[in-house]
Design goal:
With 149 residues, the chain is mainly alpha-helical. It has a single domain, classed as Transferase(Phosphotransferase) domain 1 (Transferase(Phosphotransferase), domain 1, Orthogonal Bundle). The chain contains 5 helices and no strands. About 10% of the residues have low confidence. It holds the Pfam family Pkinase. This is Protein kinase domain-containing protein. It comes from Capsicum annuum. GO terms for molecular function: ATP binding; protein kinase activity.
Length: 149
């Protein structure tokens, strides 16, 4: 959750990127960050990047769309992380099931699907396939205006 019932923020541990070259920083063998928000490549490279931050930002965006945490605590084989679950439902053309029922409204279906599409461009496994944050912001600002992405 990003805001509690008193509208106090609870978004922390976000933005591992630094304006330093990766090899100029101290590197530990510990994985730093919150599970579910850490981009897949970080566990292998231990290098924080701007594209990794885009991944983390879009996991937050997916939380807002779905009402689900990035890593659900559950049992059984049906448990998945949020990103995998999103890609599975998209591949099965079951996009309506992705959205939290409290925000799903057919009169805003196009805009909600646009936000989902933007988020999915930024959670790709390959960081080079992810959009940069300035492009993401531009796309989000254009939703509902009729401008092309």
């Amino acid at each position: 959750m990003l805001l509690d019932e008193r509208f106090e923020t609870h978004l922390v541990d976000f933005g591992l990127s630094k304006l330093l070259r990766p090899y100029d920083t101290h590197v530990t063998t510990d994985l730093v960050g919150t599970l579910g928000y850490i981009p897949p490549e970080y566990s292998q490279t231990l290098t924080a990047t701007f594209r990794g931050d885009v991944y983390s930002f879009d996991v937050v965006l997916l939380e807002l769309l779905t009402g689900k945490r990035p890593v659900e605590v559950c049992r059984g084989k049906s448990c998945r992380d949020l990103v995998s679950w999103i890609f599975q439902l998209k591949s099965e053309n079951r996009m309506e099931e992705i959205f939290d029922t409290s925000i799903w409204d057919t009169s805003y279906e196009k805009q909600l699907l646009e936000v989902l599409s933007i988020a999915c461009r930024c959670i790709m496994q390959d960081p080079q396939q992810r959009s940069l944050i300035d492009q993401v912001v531009s796309w989000l600002e254009a939703i509902g205006t009729g401008k092309d992405r």
